[in-house]
Amino acid sequence: SDSKKDHIISCCLCVSGMNAAVRATVRVGLYTGAKVYFVHEGYQGLVDGGDNIRPATWESVSMMLQLGGTVIGSARCKDFRSREGRMQAACNLVELGITNLCVIGGDGSLTGANEFRTEWSGLLADLVRAGKITDEQARKSSHLNIVGMVGSIDNDFCGTDMTIGTDSALHRIIEVVDAITTTAQSHQRTFILEVMGRHCGYLALVTALACGADWVFIPEMPPDEGWENHLCRRLTDQRARGSRLNVIIVAEGAISRDGKPITSDQIKKLVTDRLGFDTRTTILGHVQRGGTPSAFDRILGSRMGVEAVMALLEATPDTPACVVSLSGNQAVRLPLMECVQVTKDVTAAMAQGRFEDAIKLRGKSFENNWNTYKQLAHINPPDVKSNINVAIMNIGAPCAGMNAAVRAAVRMGIIQGHNMLAVHDGFDGLAHGQIEPITWTSVSGWTGKGGSMLGTKRTLPAKMLEEISQNIAKHNIHALVIIGGFEAYVGGLELVQAREKYEEMCIPMVVIPATVSNNVPGSDFSIGADTALNTITSTCDRIKQSAAGTKRRVFIVETMGGYCGYLATMAGLAAGADAAYIFEDKFNIKDLEMNVEHLVEKMKTTVKRGLILRNENCNANYTTDFIFNLYSEEGKGIFDCRKNVLGHMQQGGTPTPFDRNFGTKMGAKSVMWLTEKLKQCYRHGRIFANTPDSACVLGMKKRALTFQPLAELKADTDFEHRIPKTQWWLKIRPIMKILAKYDIKLDTSEHADMEHVLKKRSLLTK
């Protein structure tokens, strides 16, 4: 029906990444043939009507991906809380024939939207009675569909792994933490950093994980009685170990066990009075809400926007209002009020002192972060040693986040009672005996360092197996953590194959994928890819901005990734590219011609610039120079071209919060797994591991971290091109094309069905 074809977007809260969601919702709405309207100033605009509700066009959402906040404005609205206000809002919608509402905001905004939907028929009846609308208008608009997207920097909405804006807020916080730690180290200071999170400690917790803080205060899990003594003991211990700085992270809503607030001033007074340490407090405040959205938030917003339109178009009067959200890397739809209920349950659990339940209700992701933080920060190394030697090495090209994984693995190993060994310069170092003990303090401050502190090389072990086996025996290595890219995976396979000949190789091994290319089989994500993606995205922002003044300019940008098109595709989505050429998605001269024609048409609009990304190995003949020359020739008189090869800047830089957190969790989990495997493989006084499941890749698959045997992954590997045969992100490519105004078919066969979040809750409340 025609009424199904009108939909409207309203933003009720302001966070980075919202504009990506607005842009995607508008463009996909227009692509499906719907009429799309903006509501300016949130619910206030809905109540006031008039010029606040305006039609959106394709061009009206151009050049907004890199802007923080929301371009359609946002406002808290008292009027909408009253029935009269909602009646006026309903009247404004009915007059325009709008029956689909997309709301981006926090749980308050979304609850308001659901209430509006529930009352809809009653509001229409009242409007008819008051003579404000006709029976015919009421009949045409008899039902209101609602879909929500959660925009909140606190990540406090249950049912979703990440809310729009959270990752960008973490970027702001980590920038400050990095700046502060340099000055604190120089002066031997203690820094107390207060971050947002009145009812949710997610930002504080992930910041603590990502910077290796000495202590974190979060509302979900207040410290035990007598925490003051424990905190002072911890800080003194760290100084005694040679640490020059202490970092304490406080969520603004931190409380003690009896519900009293714990403030940063209170903590500062404690540390200064008891220990005499030079202590400084920094309250970040609204800095966390602003700034350029991260690549993750732009992609998240874009994917959620697409899913929201699909949910609206498929909705029936019986479908409950839903929120679109993210679980692992999967888009999911969840009943709105179930999520709101679980979010309220967390608050209730905290108020009743059921803190363990509060952490569980926050979801798997929060619980994993909390457990990892506790394991890495709160335990003194055991007195009893395990007499196990675990070696750690980096293989392949360096990438940001490798050091975070090494640090977590080293510390987790020491906590387990193992002796940890550092292997320098990859398999070369293992063959030539560049192996030395690595201690708790030697990895201090590593989470924020880019590159590889251990040193790394691309050499594979096949030609050095004799020397490697001798050094494994000489240094009595019982287990191996291999952190790196495709070479780490292939090297691991070569060691496994050598088990037949060399008994020394019969030890448990784990490969942690760490490469900007994100091309390791067995994992949807690699450490380092997020940092590279942000580097490319911010560079593309600058490049596009440079064209804003000159007009009629097309940029050809070459990205890394080997044969894997992950970086080109995801950066294309995050930066708003017109095309991204990759090896996995074959293209020919006709496609190139079509892309040029598309840009010629684009230059006739108000958006007079283009961005083309090309993966370095997408095609041997259609090189970056070839594509640049082709576009230059075909665009003569219409647009001019520039080319940029980004090169090794994509491998450098300080790791993003995602890569620090991901690296930390992967490093810790790998050693926990090795510890269990070593127990299983211990026979007759020695370690002997030769089963396929004793050498695994630890990877993120859909929604969980899983261990997959190296041998089993061979079937899913294209060894010639160094990529997995199946790659999840290829399904996202059509979104980029639709958002760039290509008329292609969007495959909705994999659309997200409604899932439920209440099962978990009922188990906890029994």
Uncertain residue segments: 759-766
**Overall average residue pLDDT:** 91
The separation of the N and C termini measures 45 Å
Strand tally, please? 27
- Proportion of strand residues: 15-25%
| Helix proportion range | 40-55%
| Structural class category | alpha/beta
The biggest sheet amounts to: 8 strands, mixed
Strand-helix topology:
Layout: E1 6-11, H1 18-31, E2 35-39, H2 42-48, E3 53-55, H3 83-96, E4 100-105, H4 107-129, H5 135-140, E5 145-150, H6 166-187, E6 190-195, H7 202-211, E7 215-217, H8 227-240, E8 246-251, H9 264-275, E9 279-283, H10 295-314, E10 322-327, E11 330-335, H11 336-351, H12 355-361, H13 364-377, E12 389-395, H14 402-415, E13 419-423, H15 426-431, E14 435-437, E15 456-457, H16 465-474, E16 479-484, H17 486-497, E17 509-513, H18 529-550, E18 553-559, H19 566-575, E19 579-581, H20 589-602, E20 609-615, H21 624-634, E21 640-645, H22 657-680, E22 682-683, E23 686-687, E24 695-701, E25 704-709, H23 710-713, E26 717-718, E27 723-724, H24 733-739, H25 758-765
Parallel strand pairs: 1-2, 1-4, 4-5, 5-10, 6-8, 6-9, 7-8, 12-13, 12-15, 12-16, 16-17, 17-24, 18-20, 18-21, 19-20
Antiparallel strand pairs: 2-3, 10-11, 13-14, 22-23, 24-25, 26-27
Helix pairs in contact: 1-10, 2-3, 3-4, 4-11, 6-7, 7-13, 7-22, 10-19, 11-12, 13-22, 14-22, 18-19, 19-24
